[in-house]
Design brief:
The structure is a homodimer of 215-residue chains. With 215 residues, chain A is mostly helical. The first copy, chain A, contains 6 helices and no strands. The interface between A and B is medium-sized, with 24 and 24 residues.
Chain lengths: 215, 215
């Protein structure tokens, strides 16, 4: 029973890591689509989103099976329950990558971003992908120190996000309200994406602490 | 055992409904703070948010207790697991009301909103509160028809949100980029608040369907 549980739990965590990794890849592509006004890449992210949703549903089923057949207690129970919450996080990360791709598609053949904020989004995109990769690693290793590092990576994202607003609010902003709205919403998508990655780290810490206290 | 489970489950659903109701009240107050540039009300929402967070944590503990002590199976298990996801929704609704209150506080003593979009936000606020109340009702009654009505209420929110953008993009917009950014983010907060209320309805349908299929 215990061996079966450990195997199933490992498979479940692999699925979560897989979705997390895919959300990161989707965000990397969406950022490219945005910066290059590349419709084909944007479409690729949009159609690929179904796969992330399918995997999320499969992960939920795996978690239900774990609960129903293994009836885990204490720390193990916390791990599975956190798993449901992590599914919601990675699923939402995928949705936010989708939002970015949709903005790129909506503005094509034009670029959604004025030249002067390209650098911000290139960097926020890089950080988002890095955060998704770190979250994936944390899911695999269950390493609490790595989980804490996610918060630092997120600080860098928050800084960029704040600076972005100072660029927007500058009286030299010459790109009008429509571009400002796009930039505002896009900034928010990246920032929320990062928040969910950090949340995954927190949940892994909770899982691990739960296991130490409960097992 | 079964009686204890039903009692505890009832208490758990009451807690969820309570948090949902409080998030609705918080959004009602935050909307007032925003429309009237009322700092005292904004502060009230901001300090009151801790209570919502405390209740969310208590609800999670109740759900863990249910899982650990009652070891529910099939439909009952789905109800408890959905419960964890509903906690995340109501908790997020509270956070979004908090965001609105913070914008009102940041702009005080000025109004964050230009006069011409006041009507939109008064109406989005009203809808948000209505959606929170409906979600609370659905949690109490577990009525699938009421749950479906949430989607219709949300359609009205989406319409308002879309119209709001046409006002912003209009070349007659005279309030500059800073106000446009506030309006864009605020619009998104109300729209996401509504989405979470609808999500609660969907989860209750899943709970109910799960019970029919699984019990």
């Amino acid at each position: 029973m215990r061996t079966a549980y450990i195997e199933q739990m490992g498979a479940f965590n692999d699925t979560l890591g897989d979705i997390c990794g895919r959300s990161g890849v989707a965000m990397a592509k969406a950022t490219n689509a945005l910066l290059q006004a590349d419709l084909a890449i944007a479409e690729d992210v949009i159609t690929g989103h179904d796969e992330i949703r399918t995997l999320s549903k499969r992960a939920e089923e795996e978690a239900f099976t774990l609960l129903a057949l293994q009836a885990p207690v204490a720390g193990d129970l916390r791990v599975v329950v956190s798993g449901f919450q992590i599914i919601a996080d990675v699923d939402r990360m995928g949705a936010l990558a989708l939002h970015v791709a949709k903005v790129a598609r909506r503005r094509h053949p034009h670029k959604a971003l004025p030249e002067e904020v390209n650098g911000y989004f290139a960097e926020m995109g890089r950080l988002a992908v890095e955060l998704a990769q770190s979250a994936r690693e944390v899911l695999r290793t269950q390493d609490m120190h790595q989980a804490a590092e996610l918060e630092e990576q997120d600080d860098a994202m928050d800084d960029l996000h704040r600076h972005l607003f100072t660029v927007l609010m500058d009286r030299d902003w010459k790109h009008g309200v429509a571009a400002a709205i796009d930039v505002t919403l896009l900034g928010r998508y990246y920032e929320r994406f990062a928040d969910h990655a950090v949340e995954i780290g927190r949940r892994v810490v909770f899982q691990t602490t739960g296991m130490i206290n409960g097992a």
